[in-house]
């Protein structure tokens, strides 16, 4: 007898309608990745005897863990070039050695001076190795090789949310063919002035004086926004049913990974998925080269009853399609016959034209030959007449008479 299957989710009274049990799946996935990497290293025979634990941790740190969300319908209708940030209990980018490139609105000098000021945290300032504006990005990094060099020089790319939608066209497939280093949006402009919770419209003259609209925020606010952006999970929504989000790394503990998976799942489903949990088909976690482990599967594969076809409806559609197929085949046959007839008529007409042209040409050639023959005969007669000597009628001289 087959064993009874255990439920992947349990309903709870408060909070989310479902409780995700990801701890068991996280343990299994992390153990599988570690054993697979050790087996691959032993099989290759290239494992260094001098390799220490820190180097092994660094190698495992580069292995990301992904959360795969599958919905019953497209999560959005149109592609969005501005990614979504989701706060995580455990930050993804905590290494102090990873460098940051900040892409800002013009003028870039404002943000360079702000980061170089004493009010900006020194630990974060040392990680920001480049600040570049949009205009300079267009001029200096407009070639493929220069973009590849910029891509390789930095680990994290942040972009002002005012210019984030322009970057796919400026940076191209070098940055956007994968999700590893896509620019993360960050809000670094000064907040709009408010009175009683409402924004105050600035004068048009003041807005024209600043090329980038509102200027930069203060150093503390910019540092906080950059720190939040680095620590958050980035989601790129597309008009499809599949969405992948990086939620952790293979060297993490299962508890940390499970906490991030739960936070991303709840935030993504509750805010962006149509029909929320009723619109979700499945949730999986996986590594780059592993199978996907399910952590939640829907009982129903549709949202509304109208999305499901009964047997009678399916038969009606099949019968209608059969009729259409027969009709289309008949129409195709008629069209083929008509096209063949048209081709034959064109061919016959072309042949007739060619034959008539040949007859005319033959007649012209014959007439030309006759004309040339006649001219040749006349010329020959003239030549013969000129060459025949004429008789001369000279008076005969008499003999002299002798006396």
Structural account:
- The protein has 403 residues and is α/β, with parallel strands linked by helices.
- The protein has 2 domains: 9-36 and 59-192 and 205-303, no CATH class; 309-352.
- Helix content is 46%, strand content 15%.
- It contains 12 helices and 14 strands.
- The protein has helices at 23-44, 53-61, 108-116, 122-127, 134-140, 144-153, 167-171, 173-176, 204-209, 219-231, 254-272, 311-387, and strands at 9-10, 19-20, 64-71, 84-86, 100-104, 128-133, 156-160, 184-186, 194-195, 198-199, 233-235, 242-249, 280-286, 293-297.
- A 4-stranded antiparallel sheet has the order 12-3-13-14, with helices on one face.
- β1 (9-10) and β2 (19-20) form a beta hairpin.
- α1 packs across α11.
- Mean pLDDT is 77; it is low at 5-15 and 207-212.
- Residues 370-390 have a biased composition (Basic and acidic residues).
- It holds the Pfam family Ribosomal_L1.
């Amino acid at each position: 007898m087959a064993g009874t299957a255990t439920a992947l989710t349990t309903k709870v009274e408060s909070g989310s309608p479902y409780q995700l049990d990801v701890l068991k799946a996280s343990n299994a996935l992390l153990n599988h990745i570690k054993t697979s990497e050790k087996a691959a290293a032993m099989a290759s025979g290239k494992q260094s005897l001098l390799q220490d634990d820190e180097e092994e941790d660094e190698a495992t740190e580069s292995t990301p863990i992904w959360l795969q969300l599958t919905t019953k319908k497209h999560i959005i209708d149109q592609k969005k070039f501005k990614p979504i940030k989701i706060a995580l209990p455990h930050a993804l980018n905590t290494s102090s050695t990873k460098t940051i490139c900040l892409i800002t609105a013009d003028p870039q000098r404002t943000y360079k001076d702000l980061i170089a000021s004493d009010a900006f945290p020194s630990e974060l300032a040392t990680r920001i190795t480049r600040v570049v504006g949009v205009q300079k990005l267009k001029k200096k990094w407009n070639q493929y090789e220069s973009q590849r060099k910029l891509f390789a020089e930095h680990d994290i790319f942040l972009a002002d949310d005012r210019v984030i939608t322009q970057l796919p066209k400026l940076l191209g497939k070098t940055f956007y063919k994968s999700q590893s280093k896509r620019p993360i949006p960050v809000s670094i402009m000064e907040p709009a002035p408010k009175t009683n919770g409402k924004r105050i419209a600035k004068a048009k003259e003041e807005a024209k004086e600043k090329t980038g609209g509102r200027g930069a925020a203060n150093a503390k606010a910019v540092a906080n926004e950059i720190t939040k952006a680095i620590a958050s999970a980035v989601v790129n929504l597309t008009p499809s049913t599949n969405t992948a989000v990086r939620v952790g790394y293979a060297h993490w503990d299962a508890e940390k990974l499970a906490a991030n998976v739960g936070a991303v799942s709840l935030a993504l489903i509750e805010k962006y998925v149509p029909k929320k949990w009723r619109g979700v088909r499945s949730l999986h976690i996986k590594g780059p080269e592993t199978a996907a482990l399910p952590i939640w599967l829907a009982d129903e594969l549709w949202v509304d009853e109208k999305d499901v076809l009964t047997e009678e409806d399916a038969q009606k559609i099949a019968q209608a399609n059969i009729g259409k197929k027969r009709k289309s085949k008949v129409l195709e046959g008629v069209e083929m016959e008509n096209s063949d007839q048209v081709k034959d008529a064109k061919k016959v007409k072309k042949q007739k034209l060619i034959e008539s042209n040949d007859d005319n040409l033959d007649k012209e050639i014959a007439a030309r030959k006759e004309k040339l023959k006649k001219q040749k005969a006349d010329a020959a007669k003239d030549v013969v007449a000129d060459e025949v000597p004429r008789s001369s009628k000279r008076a005969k001289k008499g003999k002299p008479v002798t006396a």
